[in-house]
Amino acid sequence: MSLITLEDVDQDVIDIVKPYVKNYISRVKGYCPPKETLEEFNAQPLPSETSEERYKGFVHGRKAIQFSEEMRADGAFEKLGEALIGDGWEDSYLGVNGLFYPAGSIMLWHTNSDQPGINRYINFSARGGGIFRYIDPFTKEVVESRDKAGWNIRTFPVLKKTPLWHTVYTPEPRFAIGLRELCDIDTLWEEYGSIESVLARNNKR
Hints:
This protein is an alpha+beta fold. The protein contains six helices and ten strands.
């Protein structure tokens, strides 16, 4: 099992987030900053463990637009949490992100390891092609998970003990809406024996 899972999104979840995405799409029309290229994305130097940027990925989605606060005010995270997790989701989950990436956007290498847990991101782009690239913390292999056209949900660990470096590129306009399970993932790792087993536990909930 991979450290990253990419799955289709249930229709009831799509029905919740689609109106918000449509609303934001209408508001970002005309926002077309200069595109960053796949060549620029590939040219990023691999990060080091001492990099000062390890926590700051969302800051460096330099062209991305945040709409997390609007989603909180609109009650979107609550509806999404209930659809994905069920009643009581707010006891262990937090709505962490609502982002619009214009075409040709890069989010630089980062780990978010100051806020460990398990991230579940719903992504939408009409034609897909977005790249979630990460460094496997155990093998040090650089691995890619690519968006499919339409709606996807990607689950991945945010580790503190062995940080998961990751970076994102999209050639197309892309929405990303994220929930994080607030858990001591390093302790769960010890309990379940592997990160893959922790993720399998998460996906069965």
